[in-house]
């Protein structure tokens, strides 16, 4: 799936900080929809970025940050967008370091639980490694006291389906 963005194409082809600032002004002038397109592209790209492309992803993000350094000025919901993306990117890199490439095939799941609460356990099964890493990074941003988050590879599955 290729995500398209006019703004990202312009940012990628820019050759100077001044061009990036000018693109950022255009994005800001379009309001919510302009940066929504950018952040949607960034999130989709982050989900699909594997270890071999993480450094080029980071280079693109640095260019976008020059263009739109304060997305919270466009919408309060994006006040912490860059900080959260930085945290997720660091965690993704850490997971790539901890899980050897040769063991990333198969089915993965993400579990969130708080053993001191009566809330249900949340489980996101049947994920690829990259999908699991994305959810692991995303949910890490808002862990509450005593909650834990797991990214697990499924080694054996026994399945039953109802009629």
Task: Describe the protein.
- The chain is mainly alpha-helical and 163 residues long.
- The protein has helices at 6-13, 17-30, 32-48, 54-67, 81-98, 129-140, and strands spanning 108-113, 122-127, 148-153.
- It is 51% helix and 11% strand.
- A 3-stranded antiparallel sheet has the order 2-1-3, with helices on one face.
- Helix 2 (17-30) packs across helix 4.
- The longest helix has 18 residues, at 81-98.
- The relative contact order is 0.12.
Short structural description:
By secondary structure, the protein is mainly alpha-helical. It contains six helices and three strands.
Which helices and strands occur, and which strands form pairs?
Elements lengths: L5 H8 L3 H14 L1 H17 L5 H14 L13 H18 L9 E6 L8 E6 L1 H12 L7 E6 L10
Antiparallel strand pairs: 1-2, 1-3
Summary tags:
163 residues; mainly alpha; 3-stranded antiparallel beta sheet; 6 helices; 3 strands; 11% strand; elongated
Q: Gap between N and C termini, in Å?
A: 34 Å
Taken from the alpha-carbon principal axes, the silhouette is elongated
Q: Which stretches are poorly predicted, pLDDT < 50 over at least 5 residues?
A: none
Helix content: 40-55%
């Amino acid at each position: 799936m290729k995500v398209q963005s006019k703004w990202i194409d312009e940012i990628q082809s820019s050759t100077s900080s001044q061009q990036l600032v000018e693109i950022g002004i255009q994005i800001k002038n379009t309001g919510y929809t302009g940066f929504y397109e950018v952040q949607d592209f960034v999130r989709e790209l982050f989900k699909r970025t594997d270890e071999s492309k993480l450094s080029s992803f980071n280079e693109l993000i640095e260019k976008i940050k020059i263009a739109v350094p304060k997305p919270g000025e466009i919408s309060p919901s994006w006040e912490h967008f860059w900080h959260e993306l930085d945290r997720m990117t660091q965690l993704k890199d850490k997971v790539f370091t901890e899980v050897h490439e040769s063991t990333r095939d198969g089915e993965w799941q993400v579990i969130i639980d708080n053993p001191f609460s009566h809330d249900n356990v949340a489980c996101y099964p049947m994920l690829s490694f990259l999908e699991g890493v994305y959810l692991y990074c995303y949910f890490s941003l808002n862990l509450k006291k005593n909650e834990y988050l797991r990214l697990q590879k499924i080694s054996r599955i026994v399945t039953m389906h109802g009629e």
